[in-house]
Amino acid sequence: VNFVALDGRHSEFAPPGLLSDGVPTAVIYAAKDEAQYVIRGPVTAPTLKKLVVDFTDRVLDRHLNSVGPDSITLGSSDSLVAELSSRGFRKLMLDTTRDAVVLFYASWCGFCKAIYHHFFATARFFRGFKGLIFARVDAFKNDLPWEFTVQQYPTIIFFSRKKADSVQYSGYITTTRLVRFVLRHLRHEVARQLVNTLCDSRLCLLRSLRKLQVWRLRCSRLNLPPSRLAETHRREKTLRNMLLSRLRRRGRS
């Protein structure tokens, strides 16, 4: 371990926010792990010794930069999209009650700003749906767990409520494409709300039934894992029963 004294106010190596109050601190930079470990409490000989010993014994928690609110809060644009910090992102990943569509962006990224309106328009389309949240995180200012780091900005990822099952959006970003992307991966409990919201006329119901048949036929030709295939069949059965029920009610009215 090499000991170096730096003026954090003029050093690009100082973790953001650590020296905002002017109080000295100590940080271990682990080049191999690309991680930072920050001392807890004031800088004294005993605390410095403990910092080095704990680092050597690998019992320290990595310091993660977190800019913004710690909770999952809704921000601007009529509260359509939640603005996440590093801590808020980790809380969202532990939330098993809802699916999440997350935009990873950087404040300096011009293309990110160019696609914001598509992301917010998609969030507006699904506004009020239970079990689904749209969020964004500045992945340049906030340190994220390594398994959630992205290679480019912007990146849009759909996380199911289990969060381990994630799908990254690919292709040209438009509102229509994003809506289709979300619909393709929604749980059937959430997708069922769309049927109640959009489909009411007899013609719409018949078209939806036809599309559902085509969708099931395509899925049957794919080499899906048994669990994924069973989930697909459950989703198709739920939506089909709902469409038929609404069609019968329309016939009686």
TrEMBL record:
It comes from Hyalomma excavatum. The keyword Isomerase applies. This is Protein disulfide isomerase prolyl 4-hydroxylase beta subunit. Residues 53-187 form the Thioredoxin domain. One of its GO terms (molecular function) is isomerase activity. The keyword Isomerase applies. Keywords: Isomerase. InterPro entries: Thioredoxin-like_sf, Thioredoxin_dom-contain_11, Thioredoxin_domain.
